[in-house]
Amino acid sequence: MRIIAFVVLAFCLISCTASKGRDGGWVRLFDGSSLAGWRVNENPATFKVENGAIVVHGPRAHLFYEGAVMDHNFKNFEFKAQVMTTPGSNSGIFFHTAFQPSGWPDKGYEVQVNNSQSDWRRTGSLYAVQDVREVYVKDNEWYTEYIKVEGKRVTIKINDRTVVDYTEPDGIEKEEGRAQKRLSSGTFALQGHDPDSKVYFKDIMVRPLP
After folding, report:
1. Phi and psi dihedrals of 40, rounded to 5?
2. For residue 115, which of 89, 144, 146, 147 has the smallest C-alpha distance?
3. Regarding beta strands 47-50 and 53-57, do their DSSP bridges make them parallel or antiparallel, or are they unpaired?
4. Could you tell me which CATH number the domain at 26-208 has?
5. Which residues contact 112 (CB under 8 A, 6 or more apart)?
6. Which helix (H) or strand (E) holds 199?
7. What is the pTM of this model?
8. What is the spatial distance between Cα 69 and Cα 122, in angstroms, rounded to a whole number?
């Protein structure tokens, strides 16, 4: 019995260690069942949770992460989420942003979520900075959207394919309209674009970097 117990214990330790290694420092920002740790600015009904995913559908609104992870203030990080669009939908993922009560976020950058809506800037675009015209994923299918910020460099991947590799030039804050639309630090936000858009987000995770 002791031998069996030892073998079981050893197996558990190996399994737990391997599992921890696979996580690799990734932390969940969305618990899969509620919007705990998140805050909507306008039109709260635009966001709800169904079947383990955040459903974004309704008038313009933005859902800001205000949870405990890094005191919702990220500078260098890796971020990833499972995303699914529906035909004709537009959304976005903001980073280095901050809560504001209404309007499009003034601070930080937006990464586009749009596979078929009329805006030509497609999924993965660093919006209006380094845009993507190609469509890499289809509506009604889950895909991974990944963002990495390290220093002045922003990397965006769609299903492990790099679509944006951007290095922010020095002095960008001196350019017209870029005082806040630049790299600094801040939180994440999901965009509710318009009532005709319906987009799903799940497995929202971050890995802080030095």
Report:
1. -90, 140
2. 89
3. antiparallel
4. 2.60.120.560
5. 92, 119, 121, 122, 123, 124, 125, 126, 127, 131, 132
6. strand 198-208
7. 0.89
8. 30
Token pair of 27, please? 């932390």
Measuring CA to CA, which residue among 115, 89, 118, 90 is closest to residue 104?
90
Q: Where are the alpha helices (DSSP H) in 80-165?
A: none
The predicted-structure confidence for 112-134, as pLDDT tens digits, reads as follows 999 999 999 999 999 999 999 99
For the chain, domain boundaries: 26-208
Q: How confident is the model at residue 8 (pLDDT cuts 50, 70, 90)?
A: very low
Q: Whole-angstrom distance between the N-terminal and C-terminal Cα of the chain?
A: 47
> How far from 16 is each of 23, 24, 28, 29, 206, CA to CA, in Å?
11, 13, 18, 22, 21
How far apart, in whole angstroms, are the C-alpha atoms of residue 146 and residue 162?
9
Q: How far, in Å, CA of 32 to CA of 111, rounded? A: 22
